[in-house]
Write a structure and sequence with these properties.
Elements (H helix, E strand, L loop, with lengths): L5 H13 L2 H8 L3 H15 L4 E4 L2 E4 L1 H28 L4 E7 L3 H16 L3 E7 L2 H10 L4 E5 L11 E16 L19 E3 L5 H12 L5 E4 L4 H9 L5 E4 L10 E3 L4 E4 L6 E4 L7 E9 L6 H17 L20
Parallel strand pairs: 3-4, 3-5, 7-8
Antiparallel strand pairs: 1-2, 5-13, 6-9, 6-12, 6-13, 10-11, 11-12
Helix pairs in contact: 1-2, 1-3, 1-4, 2-3, 5-9
Amino acid sequence: MADWDIKKLRILRTLQEQGTVTATAEALHMTPSAVSQQLTGLAKALGVTLLEAHGRRVRLTGAAQLVLRHAEAVFAQLERADAELLGYLQGDAGQVRVGAFSTAIPALVVPAVQELRRTHPGLSVVVREAEAEAAYELLAEGSVDLALSLAAHAPTPRDPKFSRVALLADPLDVALPAGHPLAGEPGLRLADLAGEPWIFGSSGPWSQITTTACENAGFVPERAHAAADWNAIWAMVAAGMGVALVPRMAMAGGIGALERGGPGERGGSGPGSGVALRVLSGDQPRRHVVAAVRRGSEGAPGLARVLAALRQAAVDQAPGEAGANGPGWHTQTIQPS
């Protein structure tokens, strides 16, 4: 393949525009001899004659005209590449891959993507659902650029591989059968449900979150049924089979098609009929949602755009609960022992 030197091609194009070697040299701030040397080198590299004598001047050969036809397409593509690269450097273009657990996708990721499509349409966000712990594995191996996880199931903030930022303290409400004696109890506390049959997963993050919240309230929950799918949990609560903690963010996914009821209470119809969703008083537990990137990538403009959109989605989702640890990445350098 011939050696297509972009700099020399630009000189050839300028010669076509200016008409003489002297005018070309002046336009490019070169000497006439330097222009001639560059064009001679280009002709040798391409293996064709580019210039021919025409009186006291030179003119472009047919081969030179052919070369320039293809060169114009190359120049146009390079202009597009320059523009796209500038957009990438400014965070307006490129691709950011996000790994997120299921309830974070409709509550945080989808609103963030919708906003970015409006404000930065050249920035592509690719979403991959992953459990909280698995998201960090994907991040570490380079399969995603940003991971949304739960602080309780994430590596410590002192882990030297990652930088983290708090996004949201997601309140956990309690779902009771609509006819439950405590469904309308004012000032309901988690401790009031110590003797109830509970519904939560047999293992995994949600099992640990539920048991930890109940233990912090002073009791160990008796699991009557095991389920990990929110719609399955919701259906069992509606059937009077037990009570369950439900993350506020899960409501953004349409679980139960709820509408807010009276003070501290939510009620609904459709898939959510038969369930009273109560905001707990005093001892309401929360799960903390964090974003993480590989240490050192925090300054990437595209990542910064995505994080800003996620933080705004967190504020919109739960005003006053977002960004509990401030706006910056939490990093700490660990010296090898």
